[in-house]
Amino acid sequence: MSAIEIRNLCKAFGPVRAVDGVSFTVEPATITGYLGPNGAGKTTTLRSLLGLCTADSGTALVNGQRYVELPHPLSEVGAVLEATNFHPGRTALNHLRVLCTAAQLPRERAAEALEQVGLADVADKRVLAFSLGMRQRLALATALIGHPKVLILDEPANGLDPAGIQWLRGFLRYLSHEQGAAVLVSSHVLAEVEQIVDNVVIIAKGRLVRQGSLAELVSNGDAAVRVRTTRADELVPALERAGATVERHDGFLRVSGLEAESIGQIALDAKVVLSEVAQERSDLQQVFLELTGEGQG
Amino acid sequence: MALIKAELLKLRTTRLWWVMLAVTIAYVLLQLGLTIGFAGQGGGPNGQPIFPGRDTVPFQELMWGLGASGALFPMILGVVMMTAEYRYQTITTTFLTTPRRERVVVAKLGAGVVVGLAFGLVVLALTAVAVAVSVPLSHGELVLSAKILRIAAGVLAVLVLYTLFGVGLGALIKNQLGAIVAAVVWVFIIEALVNAIPALRPVGKWTPAGAGSAVTNSGVDLGLGTDYLLPAWAGAVVLLGYAVLFSAVASATTIRRDIT
Q1: Which of A119, B15, B67, B169 is exposed most, by the fewest CB atoms within 10 A?
Q2: Local confidence band at A296 (pLDDT 50, 70, 90 cut-offs)
Q3: What's the pLDDT tens digit per position in B102-120?
Q4: Shortest Cα distance from A10 to chain B (angstroms)?
Q5: Spans in chain B with pLDDT lower than 50
Q6: What is the chain B residue with the closest CA to A51?
Q7: Which residue of B80, B93, B106, B256 to mutate against A (max A Cβ within 10 Å)?
Q8: Residue among A67, A85, A103 minimizing CB distance to B89
Q9: How many whole angstroms separate alpha carbon B151 and alpha carbon B157?
């Protein structure tokens, strides 16, 4: 059983199809990056998974159950959603005590969780006085309060300084790779999560555009060759006969499944002049930008 | 029970509850003071007193019912118990902890009962002191009749029920300022008018204010008339009905909406 299983999830807000047929799974002891530009549908997916939004169709399961059916949700799932989910007049410790009471967790967990995220010093301070980074840590303490084996984080790096991001990475790695937690972390900035994720799921305009292991995504199997010619109509059928997959872009072709050398040979045979043959850099950033349609060029 | 305890802890760990308690105390003290001050003085149509004299039993009955006037403040606290969650977006964490949302509403109603009782007991204690001091000073005799006990119980009930009314209203409106303004305007302006205009009284007795007056009806007529009111028990049922109705409607509508 997957820790998180999302199948054909759809959710529209009025005419906007925020999430449109998304499916993916997250396994224990792995970190999955849920990537996409702002407005791609990441938050809506996560909120539907957590029962905060009602999906129009499809299923979203945690440990094989819908979130609302979990008997002890905080002991199964921890979620970090927004940095502002605190009453400003309540102290950090009291915030967690309320959760312990409601979820029937031992009282000591409140102080322990603060210790875990490095907020023990400010336990009795009102959240009012907290910086964004401290709020983000408190949100993480909130998520960890029930020792969950599934962690869901929505843009957790927002508001963290570089040292905080570094700390968060180490922490998530520890929770996942050493404690066996399944971690799903969303971000619109690939660089924030690139170093720690095992798998990536990329979404744009509500639709899944790519998913796989980080290794698969950056491997050459996915790399393409960029070809420029004025006679694409003649070249494309020839390339496709040779087994290539060709995407037509504005002014160039993106050919995958063939080496640059073979493409040159095919062009020569077809007597088509090429003005450019370039191996695409296949680093994840490139893939991400192209897949999400944000960086053509 | 755990959820009710958590709701009470939420209240105790922020400041609003004691501000509201202080205001309630001040307001009820003012009411008690004015009633003591004007007791037995003329001003009625034929020069007879509006307020019964301090040495009379009706004076004591009137005094015991005054605590109900403080119900506005626990009602606001009830509203805020619900709306603050939306205002500060703590509702996300609350629903992540308790994904079956109607349980949250029920827990808040449960906590509202405790809040209303606590406020009611404070108010009754104030009343007891005020009566115990003012009556003997005017050479009256302190009584603790069945009627006074019923009135005191009515004060408790009114404070509890108004708190629940506030919780239900807050759930329905969600916007904090909007809900508070709506509650105050409705209960203390519109209803006061409806209950003051004789032609509207058939409607007025079914409003929260009319029902609240019925619960603590001391039979002492201060010029507005009390005959039209429902029996005390029916008043309590009507008030409870509002709280349950609002909460149920809210659970089926506003509370179910997506949290984005």
Answers
A1: B15
A2: very low
A3: 999 999 999 999 999 999 9
A4: 14
A5: none
A6: B99
A7: B93
A8: A85
A9: 10
Query: Which residue of A90, A95, A140 to mutate against B (max B Cβ within 10 Å)?
Result: A90
- Across the interface, of B9, B88, B96, the residue whose CB is closest to A86 is B88
Instruction: Judge whether B108 and A97 are in contact, CB under 8 Å.
Output: no
Domain count, chain B: 1
Average pLDDT of A160-164? 87
- Residue B197 is given by DSSP the state S
Q: Nearest by CB to A98, which of B9, B99, B259?
A: B9
Please list every residue in chain A whose beta carbon sits closer than 8 Å to the beta carbon of residue B13.
90-91, 94-95, 97-98
Does B223 reach chain A within 8 Å, measured CB to CB?
Answer: no
pLDDT at B221: 54
Range of the domain at B126: 2-256
Percent of chain A with pLDDT over 70: 93
A284 or A139: whose pLDDT is higher?
A: A139
Q: Tell me how many residue pairs between chain A and chain B have CB atoms under 8 A apart.
A: 81
What is the four-CA torsion angle of A70, A72, A76, A81, rounded to 10 degrees? 90
Contact A118, A164 (CB under 8 A): no
Task: Evaluate if residue A213 carries a pLDDT over 60.
Answer: yes
